């Protein structure tokens, strides 16, 4: 008769064998390879829900892990995420000597995708979304779970000193603009990437200062902090969806491209190729709360029901109108400010309910009007924020701008020329001129700008110059709506200015893409 200890030993050995068999299902052997130009582009997990391999990235391909779904896959990990894309003739080879190499025939190069400290004999894409390598003792010697990019999956940890870095977008796994750090002081904190990680740069934290634990997401969707004994000591979020006999639920916690940390559930029903993706929790409800959502010299605005957007402050234009989050630059030359009569050369534009980040170089108690004048007469002043009787002057660049209707503040900006900023009305640009004298000054200035710009690119003859000059004057004076030859001149100017890339200074032309309550 078999003794109890022997039966227990047999049960233990069988359970180990079963776990080893589960972990090594769909084993990838030495000599295996992938290529974007063949049908074999990825290695699947046994359930077919996760894949490791090539995915489209920019003008080529990158290597990563994704959760399969329709209409698009969900990227959860990228190898060497900031490397340039590779072409379609690249190959991913699991070599006979146990290395995973990315080979580019186009460049004639090869490089390790993963640095292995031991020789690997096999690999596997697990059903958890973890890609692992085994040695000849079937021990895991490397796993993607130890090197997260922007996402945690069920069973994955974020230990002290580790961080999640957002991706550029859902389809571009390159490093984005925000990161979430598991700090040594026990706090989980989100910052903009281009910051000093000072307390004033943080825009969200778990408020777990002093806790000694690791951030963990379990398979049931519990996102929390575990101590060394494996016990959950603080819950951050808890998923509400549960797997059943007819469906499988996979959770992921992602620092999204917009800087918000979110928990998602992916529900896969039997016989349904289209999983249901549901947001379970969000660290922030307003994208404008993310510091750095908009770049320098711009501000974030959201009405709460739609996504946030970025807008230039008065006197600034977008670095790239197609990528508004990159921020704005001054639309006028301020280099010789100290040689000018400031009250004649500059004016003040104002924005209500607006806040800024950073540190002011001057904070004084004064009236609202005095605050405005103090910035106008100070060449160092890019903006002055008036709040509760205190005027705070700031140098450029302006950071962390945000419109917040709960703030009773006024922001004063020193702008070039005769700039009279008002909230825009949808439609054509608005020209605001106070007097004929100013109009003559502006037209004279515009004449010089136009002539210099067009002459410098060699596209302007004398007749064309005359037409552009006259039509520009008519356009500025509001005659562009007239019919006949005058309208033709105006339209000629509009199209010509677009062709040569002529830009108007914001101090005399109001653009409709600026939103700021004045």
Automatic annotation (TrEMBL):
Key word Signal present in the record? yes
The biological process GO terms on file are:
recognition of pollen
Q: Where does the record place the Bulb-type lectin domain? A: 25-146
* Family annotation (PROSITE patterns): BULB_LECTIN (PS50927)
The signal peptide, as residue positions, is: 1-20
* Stored Pfam families: B_lectin (PF01453), S_locus_glycop (PF00954)
Keywords from UniProt, A to Z, are: Disulfide bond, Glycoprotein, Signal
Concerning InterPro entries, the annotation shows: Bulb-type_lectin_dom, Bulb-type_lectin_dom_sf, G-type_lectin_kinases/EP1-like, S_locus_glycoprot_dom
PANTHER family hit by this protein? G-TYPE LECTIN S-RECEPTOR-LIKE SERINE/THREONINE-PROTEIN KINASE SD2-5, RECEPTOR-LIKE SERINE_THREONINE-PROTEIN KINASE
| Name of the protein in its database record | Bulb-type lectin domain-containing protein
